[in-house]
Automatic annotation (TrEMBL):
It comes from Thalassotalea castellviae. The chain crosses the membrane at residues 42-66. Residues 11-68 form the Phage shock protein PspC N-terminal domain. InterPro entries: Phageshock_PspC_N. This is PspC domain-containing protein. Keywords: Membrane, Transmembrane, Transmembrane helix.
Amino acid sequence: MSYERHYSVHKTLTKDVIHKKVSGVCGGIAKHYELPRLGVRIAAIVALFSFPVVTGVAYIVAAMLLPTRK
């Protein structure tokens, strides 16, 4: 009996360079999880005001590490 799952679609989290405002991180997250881009951007801004250091560092690290969609 095999319990391995096989998926036909391999989605990877990438930056969205088409719909980017700053670096494309929020657009890429919205595209990956199929959420509205505006909602993700508003959530990022709220998080930035609530937890400025953590959110700022996380955004910068994500901007550096996430690959760009080709």
